[in-house]
Each structure stands twice: as C-alpha cells, then as structure tokens.
Write a structure and sequence with these properties.
This protein is α/β, with parallel strands linked by helices. The protein has helices at 2-9, 36-40, 45-51, 55-71, 82-93, 107-118, 158-171, 237-240, 258-267, 287-294, 390-414; strands at residues 16-21, 26-31, 96-103, 124-126, 145-146, 156-157, 175-177, 183-185, 191-194, 199-207, 211-213, 233-234, 250-254, 273-277, 299-302, 305-312, 316-323, 329-333, 336-339, 343-345, 376-378. The termini are far apart.
C-alpha cells in the first residue's frame, strides 16, 4: 500500500513524521508539509481507488485533501543549512508591495483574483491555512456535488471546483499564499496585512473571508465514519436539497428563524414531509414566514424539541427526537437533516476596523462592495447574510475587483 502512496505522491520528503490514519491501519509516513493535521485527514477521491476506502471513510479525509494538493509540491531533498535559514528569515522580513491584496479563497476571492489578475494588477492572495476550521477554498470544499454552478451540466465536485478556480487565479497572474492573516492595519494606506510568515503592503484590500454555518453536535452529526455530515446532514437546503437521496423522504430542518422557515418551504418540493425542529415553544421567524410554514400541508413543527442522535448505514436513515418538556425520545425516519441556525462571518481578525452589523457581517454601501474604509472592499458571504450561494459570491467578487481596479486607475490618473 505504501508503495502505491509513494508513486501517487511522487516526491521525496525528509522533515516531519505524519501518522496517516485509515480504517484498516495506522502507517507512519515522512512528509515535508506545512502541518501534520491536514495530511492526517487527507487522500480524497483519487486515493479512494488506491486504498479502496469506503465512501464514509473517504468523506472524512476529502476536505483536507484539497489543502494537501494545493500546498504539497514535488521536491528534491533539501539541506537546511544555517545560511539557508538566515536568508529565508531575511526575505520574510521584507514587505511585499502590491496594488491588490485578497484575503479569502472561495468563489468570491478567486473571482476577484481572476479579474484583478487579468487587469495586470498582480494580486496577492492569502487563501488561509485551515482558517475557521475549513480548508482553503471555503465551504465548497465541504460539499460533495455542486449542481447549481453554471457551466457544469452534470455537476462538479466541490473540491474540484475550488481547485479549478485556484488554478485559474494563478493562470491569470495571482500570487497565492496558503497562510492565514494574523494581523491587519487598515488605518492608513498602504494597508498592512500580516501572516505568520510574511508582510504585505497593499493599495487596496478585498475581503472575501466568508461565513461558517453553525452546526450542532450530537451523535452522528459529525464527519467521521460514524457521522452523516454530507451523507444526509447539511447546512444548506438550497445547495443540497434537490439531491436524489432526499427526494420523497422525510426531511428535518433545525431552527426557528426566517431561514429555517424558508428552507423548510423549499424542501417541500422534494420531501414527502418536512419537520421543523425548534427548541423553544415559539418560533423566532417573522409572522409572514411563520404563517407560510404553519399553513403548508407538508410541514409539521416540533416545538420544544431537539435532535439528539442520527442513525443510518452509508447514508442517514433516522433521527432520535427528544421532547424537552417530557423527556421522551422517539426514533423518526429521516433522509436528511438541515441546520438553519445561522452563520458566523469570519470578521474577528478585523478588530472592528471596518463597520460591521450586529451579527458581525461587513456593512457595504448598497449596490457596491465598498466598506466604511476607502480602498477596502468586501465580497461573498462575509457581507451577504441572505443568499449565500457560490454564484452570488462570485458575482460580488467580480464587483469588488472592478471597483478596486477603478479606484487604482483614478488615483494613478490624478497623480
């Protein structure tokens, strides 16, 4: 088995010991890579053929495999002398000057990179290193099949789509660093952006850090071999609800706000029945959305209830629902569970240097991607709490790139 891995990887390594976990064994493998943890969960679809993993085991490793392919490169053995280390440290202390710095690497970030690259602005991108617990490429890397992105009539894997975007960004002239921004100064231009390895000075900044869907933890909700994440459990009904495994089966939506009502109504197009599970006696949704859900013949609301376990085999088959008042737990048939309990925008690193709303999303001028700081633009889910789709993120990424280009052109013309 290891011989196949050697051939697949195609490079020699010499620095860190990584323990690769599989369902059948633990093997020790030496690899020079930026982190141990992602590789320990690596080897996705292509490795499925080599190691004959089951789909459940493959899904556990698929997300980090995207990051591994992006960061690991064929290389010859390297002698790390003191002179080499000093030279490397010296180069790290010299700021990189750019006209555009993009922070984030989903559809919004890569669309920005493609447009600014084609405009010969030579953008620099920090794509993140497992930022917010997600591999570079954003939430698409946690999705199996993407069927609603234009240009792919038979669908495309989420990881494959983000890999394609990344390569296109590079082809258009972007420089990409697989590093997470640790500090940023937006008080004056040029803006200063720092990771643990380098400093970038930029005339403009495009923020495309996204938002992470909130998830509940209960037995069966995770990504491991005993979990059903992306095998029946999802955080986006619009993205995944039309999948064949959900059609003509009971589905569950967890939440009590407008998003939960909206997703429940959407799922009635495919499900035999939709249950809304809410932990309180009353819904938080607006009266209009409540009325729409309550009056729908295929929707039933389970008040003061919570899902405490998910069960199945290769895919989700049932959930245990607990009545919080009586303590009674009953097993109910379920082909899908959809979290609709909100998102957390990745804006904490900004330290309130741009205007945020009460939920932490970046506030942009309506119809634009302009933030409260001139020269700083925001695109994608970090400023979009309503649509949260790959294609809408890409659209705002285009807007941010064009606005940054126009600002740079105007300022250069005025000099």
């Amino acid at each position: 088995m290891l011989a196949h891995i050697d051939q697949y990887l195609g490079f020699t390594t010499n620095r860190r010991q990584v323990v690769v976990g599989t369902a059948c064994s633990l093997r020790q493998y030496s690899i020079d890579i930026m982190s141990v943890a992602p590789f320990a969960r690596a080897f996705g679809a292509r490795a499925n053929n080599l190691l004959r993993w089951q789909p459940a085991e493959t899904s556990r490793f698929a997300r980090a495999f995207s990051h591994f392919r992006q960061t690991a490169r064929p290389r010859a053995p390297t002698t790390y002398s003191i002179t080499h280390q000093r030279r490397t440290m010296a180069s790290m202390s010299e700021p990189i000057r750019t006209k555009v710095c993009i922070i984030g690497s989903g559809p919004a970030g890569h669309t920005s990179a493609i447009y600014t690259g084609r405009a010969e602005l030579k953008p620099v991108m920090f794509e993140g290193f497992l930022a917010n617990g997600i591999a570079a490429g954003g939430q698409l890397t946690t999705t199996t099949d993407v069927e609603n992105f234009p240009g792919f009539p038979t669908g495309i894997g989420g990881i494959e789509l983000t890999d394609n975007m990344r390569q296109q960004s590079i082809n258009c002239g972007a420089t990409i660093y697989t590093e997470t921004v640790t500090d940023i100064d937006l008080s004056q231009r040029p803006f200063v952006i720092k990771s643990s390895k380098r400093t970038v000075e930029a005339d403009t900044v495009i923020l495309a850090t996204g938002a992470v869907a909130k998830r509940l933890e209960f037995p069966g909700s995770g990504e491991g071999p005993d979990g059903f994440w992306q095998r029946g459990i999802s955080a986006c009904a619009v993205c995944d609800g039309a999948a064949p495994i959900f059609r003509n089966h009971p589905l569950f939506v967890i939440g009590g706000g407008d998003s939960a009502m909206e997703e429940a109504v959407f799922l009635t197009k495919f499900a035999s029945k939709v249950y809304i599970v809410h932990r309180r006696d009353e819904l938080r949704a607006s009266k209009v959305m409540q009325k729409r859900a309550i009056e729908h013949p295929k929707i039933e609301i389970l008040y003061s209830s919570e899902i405490v376990a998910a069960r199945g085999e290769s895919v989700l088959k049932a959930v245990d629902v607990k009545d919080k008042k009586t303590g009674e737990v009953k097993e109910m048939e379920a082909a899908g569970v959809f979290f609709a309990i909100g998102h957390t925008p990745a804006t904490e690193f900004l330290n309130d240097q741009v205007q945020l709303d009460e939920e932490g999303y970046i506030v942009t001028t309506p119809g634009t991607t302009e933030t409260s700081v001139k020269g700083v633009f925001a695109c994608g889910d970090v400023q979009d709490k309503k649509w949260r789709q790959a294609v809408t993120a890409a659209g705002t990424g285009c807007m941010a790139a064009l606005q940054a280009e126009h600002l740079i052109s105007e300022e250069e013309a005025a000099q």
